[in-house]
Amino acid sequence: MIATAGEQWVVVLIILVFLFGLFLGARLPMPRRKGRGDRDPRQSPGYIRGMYAMLTGDVETAIENLSKVVELSSDPIEVYLALGNLYRQRGQIDRAIRVHQSLLTRAGLSEEDRVLALNALGMDFRTGGLMDRSMKTFRESLALSPKDPDALTHLVKLSEDLGEWGDAYDYAVRLHKVRRHRDPSTQSYLLAQKAQRLAEGGMHLRAAWDLHRAIRLYPENMMAYIFLARLRLKVGKPEKARRILQKALRAIPHKSFMVLGLLKEVSLQTQDVAGYMQTLHSLAEEHHQKRAMLQLLQEYLDLKRRDQVMPLVRELVKHFGRSRLVQRTLWDLLRKGLLSQEEQDELTAMLAASDQMMDHFNCIYCGYKTLEILHRCPNCKEWHCFADGE
To answer: Rounded to an integer, what distance in angstroms lies between the CA atom of residue 236 and that of residue 259?
Structure first.
């Protein structure tokens, strides 16, 4: 049977469609079934082991496993961030910097991931002592995300380390607005440091204004009182300095050990020895401040007020018998022959069960001990945290 012309065209069309399909099949890649190499790297054993090791503090195992993950795939951003942080933790700052910089050169990086990478890189620079580069990096991060708390936190600390107290205060104010958690003590101490720098530059009026603001923010900021009193002395106003110290001692008598030397200096300039002695007596009798009691004892000795020495010595031994400083004071009294035999026997009995100890100032937050008078703990970085150890 002979095919008609129409049927022949149908056959030709079918053949052409078939050949075109073969051509496309040859030119386009065929979809493959996912094999072992195509799995999400986050599901790989290396990723799981690496992240677990990082959480448990096993840095070496974490680096070993996460390095294998990034060799197979460059997709997981968090692996690069974690790996760079682990290098930094191990002290390999150059490698940490390279890892985090490689992220920032990646095309299509989201703003959130870029901020994370910049913050990690800023920490690398800071750990490596490259403070200027660290500051610049965190500022870039803050420019991308003005309310990022991590960048603000690091900028506060960096500014403190560099002595840029004005910037530290400004960043702290921004940080507290972002977190919606007011921290007046930190702001107060940073503002006081800023004011001290202004005073050193001769801007006394602005410095005094900021110091008053610092005290209003946090009335227990003894550092601000001290700076303000010294500023008043510097400009020839000792009476105002005396009133400032009196106000400070009323507000925070337990911090009196910080100002006893300055208090005497002010009393000499104002010729108010009676007021000075009354203040020492109040601190000793009402608040049992050890160093105020010791200073009062020395004043009694200098003034030859022998009748008031032994009652004060009894109070010192009663409250601070274990203090090495108190025991050394008693030894000096004995060596100078200022105690009768009866008084010696009495004190010996009181001290019989006491042990010697150093007169440390103790951080109430972390327990750090120091023999110096400090406004800030060098260990935990808390402000206004030292108590006079007994």
So the answer is: 19
pLDDT digits (tens, 9 = 90+) for 170-186: 999 999 988 877 778 89
Token pair belonging to 191:
């503002």
Distance CA 138, CA 134 (A): 6
| C-alpha 106: how far from chain center | 33
Burial class (CB in 10 A: 0-12, 13-18, 19+), 360: middle
**Phi and psi for 386 in degrees, rounded to 5?**
-95, 135
Quick one: CA dihedral 136, 139, 143, 145, positive or negative?
A: positive
Cα of first residue to Cα of last residue in the chain, in angstroms, is 121
Number of Cβ within a 10 Å radius of residue 336: 9
Count of CB atoms within 10 A of residue 117's CB?
25
Boundaries of every domain in the chain: 360-390
- The angle formed by the CA atoms of residues 92, 95 and 98, to the nearest 5 degrees, is 150
- Run of H or E residues at 48: helix 45-55
CA dihedral 335, 339, 345, 349 (to 10 degrees): -80
- 3-state DSSP: the chain helix, strand, coil percent, rounded to 5? 70, 5, 25
Is residue 353 classed as helix, strand or coil in its secondary structure? Answer: coil
**Rounded CA gap, 149 and 168, in Å?**
14
State the Cα angle at 254 between 251 and 257, rounded to 5°.
Answer: 110
Closest CA to 312 of 337, 292, 340, 328: 292
262-313 pLDDT tens trace: 999 999 999 999 999 999 999 998 888 999 999 999 999 998 898 899 999 9
Angle formed at CA 383 by CA 378 and CA 386, multiple of 5 degrees: 75
